Amino acid sequence: MGLAAYDLTGRTALVTGAASGIGRATARLLAEAGARVHCADLDAPGAERTAALIAEAGGAARAHPLDVADPAAVARTVATAVDADGPLHIAAAVAGVLHRSPVLETDDADLERVLAVNFRGVLYTCREAARSMIAAGVPGSLVTMASGAVDSDAPGLLCYSASKAAVVQLTKVLAAEMGSHGIRVNAVAPGWVRTPMTERAQAAAQRRTEDAMARLAPLGRVGEPEEVAHAVLYLASDASAFTTGQILRPNGGVAMPW
Length: 258
Prior knowledge:
Largest sheet: 7 strands, parallel
Strand content: 5-15%
GO molecular function, one term: oxidoreductase activity
CATH class: Alpha Beta
Low-confidence stretches: none
Protein name: SDR family oxidoreductase
Structural class: alpha/beta
Keywords: Oxidoreductase
Number of domains: 1
Strand order of the largest sheet: 3-2-1-4-5-6-7
InterPro entries: NAD(P)-bd_dom_sf (IPR036291), Sc_DH/Rdtase_CS (IPR020904), SDR_fam (IPR002347)
Distance between the termini: 28 Å
Mean pLDDT: 93
Family: Belongs to the short-chain dehydrogenases/reductases (SDR) family.
């Protein structure tokens, strides 16, 4: 197939969490590969900025304000994207939140908030995108965002790691159910990546978190959003045409599960 397998010309993609970090990097890279990208985020100005950056680089993008925890809003966003640019071929469910607290200090509201975004938001995004792909009769790729936290004990990250573990299981079940429709479903599980979300977490910990994660990784550093975006591009493109139900781990080697 060669490098042409990464060409997304003529395809339509939806990226949630597109206002910053991994979501913004993913939206920009998919557009660079030729896709028409719909940038969705609760941070509407951030999503608009991502779409503007894509347009400035010669790509095609639209921005959508979106709370992924609202299933009706997700359905409307997918419908709007399809009406504008035709059937979805790619959906990257990147939107997520981070919460840190010991198990004994975690209350129901914290758990509910994280599950609503990190798990149910991914479920709603993938469900609506898959429905649109099936209705249009087009093969597609759904890419979910898990985390290296699913491969470790992750003290203090019960809500986050549990929600991401649920995303992994969702990915497997969807892959099994969607294969007959030509829809592939895969997860990306990054290690610690330098994003606005993790920068806020480190500021609260006086930057100890990033330093600790860099020491744990065999590569001796944390990741950048663009490095994770390349993993998403691989899974979104024909380069991974025989890949489904898998977890891709751009984590610097911090976790090496068999």
